[in-house]
Amino acid sequence: NLYVASWCHSTFIDLHYLDSMLENGANINATDRYGQGVLHGVIAHVWHPDVARYFIERQADVTIADNYGVTPLHVAAAVDYPEMVAFLLDIGGKNNILITTGMMQTPLHYAAKYDAIDSLKCLLKHKADMKARDYKQRTPLQLAAELDRSEAARLLVGFQADAGVYDNTGQLCLTLMVANMPPVANVALDQFFIKDRANRKQYFKLNVLVPQPSGQKKTPLSMIYRQLDLIMHPVVQKLIEIKWKHFGMRGVTIHLTLNILFIISWTILGIASTLTGINQQRYKLPEDWWKILVALVAVGLTLYQITDEFIEIHASKRKFSQWKEWRNQEIMKDLNLCHPRWPEEKTYLKKELSALDDMHPNYLRDFWNLFDWLCYLLIFTVIVTHVADLLMENPNLHTSHVRLFAVAIIFIWLRLMKHVRAIRSLGPFIVMLGKISVDILKFLFLYGEFFVPYACAFWIIFGGLVPNMTTVPQMLFTIFRITLVDDYGFDDMYGQDSVMAYFLCGTFLGLSSILCINLLIALLSDTFQRVYDNATANAAMQQASIVMQIEEHLNQKDKNKFCDFIHESCAPLGIFFDDDMTTDQEADLKKVTIQIKAEELCILGLTTEAGCWWLNQLQACTVPQKHLKMQNLQHVVPVLALHQNFPFSPILLPFHQTLLYFSFSDNYLIPALKLFQPQVEECHFTHQQPAMRKKKIYNIFLCFFTLHLAFVTNTPTNGNNFSHVYFAKTPQ
Fold first, then answer.
1. Nearest-5° angle of CA 543, CA 587, CA 594?
2. Where, subcellularly, is it found (predicted)?
3. Best exposed site among 42, 321, 526, 724 by fewest CB in 10 Å?
4. How would DSSP label each residue in 581-596?
5. CA 145 distance to own-chain centroid
6. Each residue of 633-671: pLDDT tens digit?
């Protein structure tokens, strides 16, 4: 038939042959087994629109749909063929935009889910409906977010597509964006933050971020609290603040109070266990009634917290199981409707199912949950050894009990950080300790590479021959003391074997104390800087994590009460707007006004008017933070300025007289020449190699020397003589 004939030639079409077939009665609207006609094939192979015009002029149906409801316009949108999209819309009329498939998806849905950017632009230009819904009530933006089509989602968000819509199951579009495309979600969050500068008001649409209570769908905050960039968005910050005030602060106070009481009671028992001698009676009544009371409080609090942990485990498993089952059903719905002509979507959905099978509840992924059970295990062991000690009165058992109690007390006190991290002033430092522990593990591997072979060498030479190496534990601790430059008995080793004493102690001292310790300091400093640079974000993440845990433990009545408050009073939440309050505290680094004293700027040969003009231009100049920084003086060089004592030649001023500082942390030097001539090229710099630093200084020297020559020759202020002045990356 005609459809088959049109596919016989992959590089050209024999129109005469097709005309002869039509004259012999061929059906131009014939379809294949999928119900697709000739126009589907023409568009799928991205042939010229004139080919489609040829068939349409011969009565080919431009709106024909296949067995899955896919029209030629859907195909053109999916294969990102904007010329064909525009042609079909012009031929078939604007109503083609509203044509839906068997999944009730418009061409805009198809362009979004196949990441066809150019087709999206064309459809939006022709006023395609961004609010159209498919069979699951998903908009094109939500479909793009669910299928991880970042570019399509970014474009739709740029066209103000609503990110606060829900599908028929209550799944929020923004939640999918946070999970699959955080950078786009960060832009979409701006839709829920409105500034009314005229009336000094700002509005937060918090009701969008707090959906109605559901045991299946995840909330945006449950996905955001691990995202360092998203957590600092004003809308998210305001939501955390509202939750903290309503139930977070109260919950943290209760948990912190119980935990402090828990710690103090076990600490008192631990100290009391050392006051009783091995051969003395453990409890003397009625004198020791307080010990029994403290023990009952400690054990009671322990049982309460263990019960709470089991409740949390059960709730976590139940909630995850419900979400997993719901998500599996939703994926299967889409999988059963995938078109066989385009297997990419089916492949992606199968990968989603596979990833879903590999998912497990998040309870055991939380370090603090594991740390809790470690503390409970130590406490259980302490209780068992104490009971055994009371029954058996064995001196060795009593000693073991006291030692174990001492270790348990350390971990019990460290557990306090779990609840303290919700306090924003302390949260970053607790995060820092976690990051540092990872660095210490890396360091221990490197340190062990030196420690183990040197331990063997020391034992071979001095094992059992010197006082501090009579046993292996003594020898290992002595070698560790060498790293700390402590007293490690060098004289004894020297008396036994002077050559090996010098060799082993000297080399190990250099490798461990100088190399390894300084490497550890560098690692810890780098970690501290990275965490502290994002201290506010890290504090917000910790607080959000605790707030979510407390919210999970709220009863249904309190959850409904808070949800009603959000949807009644925060839809939107309007508060007073103050530029100074809402602007970033470091925004002054982004726009720096250059202040220069007139007496420090004296250029020979310049008229008073020219000198004042230059001064005014510099004072009015604002420079982006990317190009100009007033900090990090160890990485900067002073700008070459012209000094009155050196006519016709610029000099380097001392740091205390420096007018400006240029940072080498960016690829570009501030285009200083543009201050005088907008047509001047930007001054490019490379900073990868330290050897380039002199070349950078030299380039700055040339820049201001050129300015100096221009001014001393009374160059007009329009700077026409600078049209060809620029500096390249080469040393010249």
1. 155
2. Cell membrane
3. 724
4. HHS-TTGGGTSEE---
5. 18
6. 333 333 333 333 333 333 333 333 333 333 333 333 333
